[in-house]
Fold this sequence. Notes:
GO terms for molecular function: mechanosensitive monoatomic ion channel activity. The chain crosses the membrane at residues 66-89. It is a multi-pass membrane protein. By secondary structure, this protein is mainly alpha-helical. It has helices at residues 2-12, 15-47, 68-99, and strands at 59-61, 64-66, 110-112, 119-121. The protein has 2 domains: 2-99, Large-conductance mechanosensitive channel, MscL, domain 1 (Non-ribosomal Peptide Synthetase Peptidyl Carrier Protein, Chain A, Orthogonal Bundle); 106-134, no CATH class. Helix content is 57%, strand content 9%. Helix 2 (15-47) packs across helix 3 (68-99).
Amino acid sequence: xxxxxxxxxxxxxxxxxxxxxxxxxxxxxxxxxxxxxxxxxxxxxxxxxxxxxxxxxxxxxxxxxxxxxxxxxxxxxxxxxxxxxxxxxxxxxxxxxxxxxxxxxxxxxxxxxxxxxxxxxxxxxxxxxxxxxx
Length: 134
């Protein structure tokens, strides 16, 4: 039992798990901000073009009342969240590209013989193809 708890502790305190937990919490807070944007700004603007806003749009199917306006608002909510996340990730990637060190080119291991233009080892003092002294 002690080994099980030790393994669980190691798993739970790994960097990826903690990052994911923080992302979920921030995502929940971000959702409430986007919900407020959609419900308090976008929905009233769209509501100017329809009576009662989109949330009021519905139709009766038998005894059931189907609120397709609320569904449309959820789609708009999703699109706003996706767009904002896309712009944030794009900006983050641009910033992280600036912070990366430029990669160095690998050291050359060959050179070209000035006489026969064959590729030879960089430390060679005699060309194996034309027998010229280098």
